[in-house]
Fold:
Amino acid sequence: MIVLLILLFVTGYILITLEHPVKINKTATALITGVLCWTAYALMSSESESVIHHLGENLAATAEILFFLLGAMTVVELIDVHDGFALITDRIATRNIRTLLWVISLLAFFLSALLDNLTTAIVMVSVARKLIRNTEQRRIVAGMIIVAANAGGAWSPIGDVTTTMLWIGGQITTVNIIRSLFLPSLVSMIIPLFLLTRLFKAETQTEKITNKQGVSRPYVTPMARRDRRVMLAVGLGGMLFVPIFKTLTHLPPYMGMMLVLGVIWVVSELLHSDKDESERQKFTAAYALSRIDVSSILFFLGILLAVGSLEVTGVLRELASMLNQSVGNLDVIVLLIGLMSAVVDNVPIVAAAMGMYDLQTYPTDAKLWEFLAYCAGTGGSLLLIGSAAGVAVMGMEKLEFGWYLRKIGGPALIGYVAGALV
Structure:
């Protein structure tokens, strides 16, 4: 059974990477792979009730991520349709692509620590869309947003799901993880940023956003300006509230995000209550939901189902044990775990590592846990499907697996190793 599961996963993974040559959409491949992995597990297991129980647990964990993603993307779309991000883009005076790359990357790095890498990636890609019209330039910036968001999330207990797992599990503390990982995370972001900056000529300018009359900033009515401010404040303020909500209630993050979505939905309805139905249609949450790329969410579902089957059957735990026996050096093992997190989801890998090493042997804030938080958080940047931020940006900007590997993967790997050495 184990061999068949691995074979199914590897075959599905290869087909995903070869999406364009084989002309099969990666979402379809991911869904088929996820279902087939669980089907193989069910048919070869003698305890069908146990399989169903494991599937239910896995689906519950997956649904938390998917609902969070759905809520965050809808909130961002609602802000965007009200031109709320113009309040940010209008304050970025430069249109030089090199400067924009640095400004957007640094914003993503620090915002990710306050929100989380997934939400930050969605917000910053929306901002990049407002500032950069050249498609190839924007794809490079989007790739760098993934690297910056993952790096920023690694040094904050609420910035990345794996760091949050270690924080909740008692392996790390807030002050120590920030003090220990800020510099390595910054290095892992700055080095790829330097390397990617060289892709653009210093004089390269992005196209300015203009209206039909050629005016760079068209007139905005006082009421529309008010709507922008309100929606941006409610949306971003609500996203900042999500980690606070989680800390206070101990409920999963998606519950906080659903609350924020409900609130901004109500605010949007109230702002446009005096308009007729056709006029306010594009400002509704229903319209925002129709603009979301559902295929990227279904792709995420398929990938997490497939990885979940490897987790419950003990494949990932066995892999971690084999590394422990064959490699021996703990630093090298954790570095390899980070590399593996680019191929499969970092959540079950970190969960397996937390099960392998106990708090009696490695107490709170031991180097093992700090290094694990760094490697699992930043290692996902090496491949496009290695992190939730990568999957979200892939859906929003239609990035290709092979393109990302060629353009972003190399610089991200250099930054990853450099940060690990720091």
